[in-house]
Each structure stands twice: as C-alpha cells, then as structure tokens.
C-alpha cells in the first residue's frame, strides 16, 4: 500500500478536526481521576501545603477542588494562564528547568510530576531531574509510563517503543495511531522520538532510592505506569537532600 493510499484512508478515518488529544481526553480522564484519588490517599496533602508541579499545567489542577494552599506550575516556557480562569484556585505560573531547579532544599511541601521525566532526554538528564525533584520536595510524587507496558502511550501503538529509535522514526508516520491522527512531519517525528525515553521499573528504583515505587496496572496484569512516592515524616525529615545545591545558589525561577 503506497503512502498516497495511506493518506486517503487516514483522512477518511480521522478528519482534521479529530486530534490525538481527542483520544487522550477520553482515555486519560478516568486514569487522572483515579490517580488524583490515590495521591490524596497516600500523601494526604493539607490546605497549608505548597505544591510544586514540575512540567504540569494549571488547567489540570483547575479541573478539581484544590487540595493544597498553592500550586506552583513550572515549565520550560511561559504558560498562558489567568487567575480569572479558576478564581477558587491559587495557581502560580513559573518558568524554569526541572533538571536544574533554582529552589532551596526541601523548600516545597510536595514536589509533583506527572508524565514528564520520560521527556527530559537521556538517562543522564533523567538522573538530574530525579535528583532535583527529590532535593526540592519534602513529600514526593513522580509518575511516568512504564517501558514494560506493550502499548506506547504517546503513539497509542503496541510494541513500537521496543524497536531502535531509527526504526521507530521510520514506522511512526504510517504505522501508529499517533502518526495517522497527528500527521507529523519528519522533524516532529525525529524530535519526539529523540526526546522520549520510557523508564523501566529497575531504573525508577535506582532514580528514586528513598521512594516507594508503586505500579499502576492495565487490565490488572500489565504494568501501565510507575509512581515514585515519598511521604515526609519523622523517618524522612532528617534525610540529606540529593546533590549539593543550597538555597540562594541561584536566582528564583521567573514568575508570570
């Protein structure tokens, strides 16, 4: 079947108005609600807590009753957000790098990240991300899709992430659900593949040695994602923070 034939078929199956986010909204809404319930149950955040969400977006928190005093949403780029969008929430927008956070040790009651660490680049960058978020937060919640899950969640396609990256780049445009719906060009495919690295459970254990690694499962059997959980208490309050960065070493992240 030629690419032209594939193109005609994909336009009939997936009109331009239908995007990959249309699928994400349906599939992940249920998982997001279940995960929030687990977060509340495990970390028991209080209305006095300040939470740092590394790589998250404010509208995710605005969809639920705010469980903490304030949420600081940090990304590499400015996010278009107004407090008027969620007047019952206190959400602050920051710009910064999750691999080089400019906050002091244990300066946040909760450090939170959902499906971000797999996008920071190489294993070395993931190590920096893990070290920084462990350093800055007291309690910790870091979730990431499982490499062991046969369905790659970004491409919505089975087994493709088990191939070498060069093979992934050749397959994704015409042999993945993401490719058919998003219709990415070669540069987008290359950048997406190069910046996505799913983690194995053994790697999560090494990256977060002071955390419990919880496994979310698909159909009660298949690992879907992993969550690194650290509860701040008497047994953790005196732990030295990872790394050597101390408060005041760097200027604060930009606030918008």
In short:
The chain is α/β, with parallel strands linked by helices and 256 residues long. Helices cover 32% and strands 21% of the residues.
What does this structure look like?
The chain is α/β, with parallel strands linked by helices. The protein is globular. The chain has eight helices and ten strands. Helix content is 32%, strand content 21%. The strands form two sheets. The protein has an eight-stranded mixed sheet with strand order 8-9-5-4-1-2-3-10, sandwiched between helices. A two-stranded antiparallel ribbon has the order 6-7. Helix 4 (123-136) links the parallel strand 4 and strand 5. It folds into two domains: 1-43 and 156-195, no CATH class; 47-154 and 197-256, Rossmann fold, CATH 3.40.50.150.
Helix count equals 8
The number of strands is 10
Relative helix content: 25-40%
For the sheet with most strands, the description reads: 8 strands, mixed
Structural class computed from helices and strand pairing = alpha/beta
Q: What gross morphology would you assign?
A: globular
What spatial order of strands do you see in the largest sheet?
A: 8-9-5-4-1-2-3-10
């Amino acid at each position: 079947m030629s690419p032209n034939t594939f193109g005609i078929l994909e336009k009939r199956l997936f009109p331009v108005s239908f995007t990959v986010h249309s699928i994400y909204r349906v599939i992940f809404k249920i998982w997001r609600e279940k995960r929030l319930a687990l977060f509340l149950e495990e970390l028991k955040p209080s209305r006095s807590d300040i939470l740092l969400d590394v790589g998250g977006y404010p509208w995710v928190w605005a969809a639920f009753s705010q469980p903490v005093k304030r949420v600081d949403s940090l990304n590499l780029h400015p996010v278009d957000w107004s407090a008027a969008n969620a007047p019952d929430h206190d959400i602050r927008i920051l710009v910064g790098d999750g691999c080089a956070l400019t906050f002091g040790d244990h300066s946040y009651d909760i450090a939170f990240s959902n499906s971000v660490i797999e996008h920071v680049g190489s294993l070395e960058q993931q190590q920096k991300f893990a070290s920084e978020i462990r350093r800055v937060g007291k309690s910790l919640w870091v979730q990431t899709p499982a490499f062991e899950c046969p369905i790659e969640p970004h491409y919505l396609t089975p087994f493709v992430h088990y191939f070498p990256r060069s093979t992934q780049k050749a397959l994704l445009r015409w042999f993945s659900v993401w490719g058919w719906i998003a219709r990415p060009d070669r540069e987008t495919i290359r950048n997406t593949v190069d910046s996505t690295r799913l983690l194995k459970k053994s790697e999560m254990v090494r990256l977060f040695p002071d955390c419990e690694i919880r496994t979310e499962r698909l159909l009660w059997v298949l690992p879907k994602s992993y969550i690194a959980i650290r509860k701040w208490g008497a047994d953790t309050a005196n732990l030295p923070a990872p790394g050597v960065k101390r408060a005041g070493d760097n200027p604060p992240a930009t606030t918008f």
